[in-house]
Amino acid sequence: MNQRQFDQAHLFHEQPLIEFIHPAAPAQPQRLAPGVRLHPFAPLTIARMRAVDIADAPELRPLLLNWWELNGRHAIPWKLRPDGSRPADGEPLDPYPIWIAEVMLQQTQLQVVLPYWQRWLAAFPTLEALAAANAHHVLLLWQGLGYYSRARRLHQGARQLLEGQRLIAPAAADPWPRTLEGWLALPGIGPSTAGSILSSAFNLPFAILDGNVKRVLARLIASPRPPARELKGFWRLSELLLDPQRPRAFNQALMDLGATLCTPRNPSCGACPWQGHCAAYAAGDPAAYPVKDAPRELPFQVIVVGVVLNDACEVVIDQRLNEGLLGGLWEFPGGKQEPGEAIAATIARELMEELAITVAVGEELITLEHAYSHKKLRFVVHLCRWTGGQPQPLACQQVRWVQPQQLGEFPFPAANARIIAALLERLGLADAPASPGQPGGTAAA
Ligand code: SF4
C-alpha cells in the first residue's frame, strides 16, 4: 500500500453526518441514508452543491430505479448470473469478470469493451488463469484497447490477489477484498472502479463517480464549476443519493441514465425520471453542463519511424520498456525530430541511439496523425535498408528481426496497425494472414 492509499484507508470512516449548504435555507446538517459509507474523498463541506434540494434524495432514488427497471441496460454480461438471468438484489456475483470489465471500461465505452471482455474471459476464465498467463499473451489480448498499463496492472493484480490470499488469509473462501482500501491496494484501481466493483459484485453501499455520473450530477445541480474542480463535493453528492438497500442497482441505473438519456450532447430530458428535479433542465440549457475549462492547446510532436529491412526481407522491431503509457508493447524504432533536423538525419540518429545500427533511409512509407488526450503526434514513416551493426536493445527490452507476415503475433500500439498494413501492401503481402500465437522471429540481442 503506498502513502496515498494508506491515507485514503485511514481517512475512511462511517461518520453519519455531513454538512450541506443549500441556498434557500441556513446550512443544515444532513444524514446519509443508513448504511451508506462516506467515501474517503468526501469533503467537510459541499457548499457548491447548492442547487439541488437535499430533501429530494429519498425521492430521486425510486424515480431513478423505477425508470431503470423498465429502461436500463439489463444485458451487460458481467452483471448477470452465469446462466444469463438477473441476480436478486443481495445476491453476490463473481468479482473476477466484473473486475476485468471495470478496468477495461476505464477510458473506454461499453460497446468497445464487450468483444475484448469476451475474448479475455475465454483466454483467462479465472483469476488463477490470468495470474499464470505470460505477459506477451496478456498484452496481445489487450491490443487495440489502448492505455496498455491497464493490462499489465490486471496481470500484476491477479498475482497480488492470490499472493495476498496465500500469505494473509489462506483459509479464506476467496481472495476478493470486501473493503474499499482492499481494492485500492491493487494496481490501477481508483475509488470509482473500487466502488463499482464492490457494489456490483457484493451489493455493498459504495458510491461511484465515473464520467457518466459526473455529467448527470453536474446537470442535476447545475454545477457552476467543472466536476474535476469539485471532486470532493461530487463524491459527497453521489454518496448522498446512493440507495443503501440497492447499491448495485442504483449505481448501474445512474450509469445507464448517463449513457442513454443524459448524454453529452442533446440529452433526452423529456424521458428523464429526474427532469422535475434537474437544475440544468430548469435553467433551459442542460447541454451547457458540465461546465468545462477553456480547452488548452495540445503539444504537437513529429515522430520519425524507420521500417528497417535486411537482405532476407526481415524487419526489425523492438519492445518498449515496461514503464509508461505504451510500456511492454512492440514498435518500429524511431523517435522525436529535433528542431531544424531533417527527417533522414533523425531516423539515422534514432536508430543508432536506440539499436546501434546504420541504415540507408529510403522512401516514405506513410505519414499519419494520432491524437492522445495530452498530445498530438505526426508519425513520418520511412522504409530503410539495414547497412550495418547488430541491433542492440540500448533503449528497449529486446529487439527482433521478424518476417513481415509475423507482425500480427506481436502487440503493437494502435497507431502501428496502419504502418503494418502499409508495409504489407508495399511488399505485396497484404493478403497474407497474420498468424496469432506465440511470437516468432529472431532475437537480435
Ligand atoms: S433532465 Fe436532462 S439534463 Fe437533467 S438529468 Fe435528466 S437528462 Fe440529464
> Structural class of the helices, strands and pairings?
alpha+beta
**Largest beta sheet, briefly?**
4 strands, mixed
- Kindly estimate the percentage of residues that lie in beta strands according to DSSP: 5-15%
Query: What number of structural domains do the residues give?
Result: 2
Instruction: Identify low-pLDDT runs.
Output: 1-51, 435-439
Strand order of the largest sheet: 6-3-8-7
What's the CATH topology name of the largest domain? Answer: Endonuclease III, domain 1
| pLDDT averaged residue by residue | 85
**Coarse morphology:** globular
Q: Give me the Rg, rounded.
A: 25 Å
How are helices and strands ordered from N to C?
HEEHHHHHHHHHHHHEEEEHEEEHE
Whole-Å distance between the termini? 36 Å
CATH architecture identity of the largest domain: Orthogonal Bundle
User: CATH H level of the largest domain: which superfamily?
Assistant: Hypothetical protein, domain 2
Bound molecule kinds, no repeats = iron/sulfur cluster
Helix percentage:
25-40%
Any idea of the CATH class of the largest domain?
A: Mainly Alpha
Q: How many beta-strand runs?
A: 10
Number of helices: 15
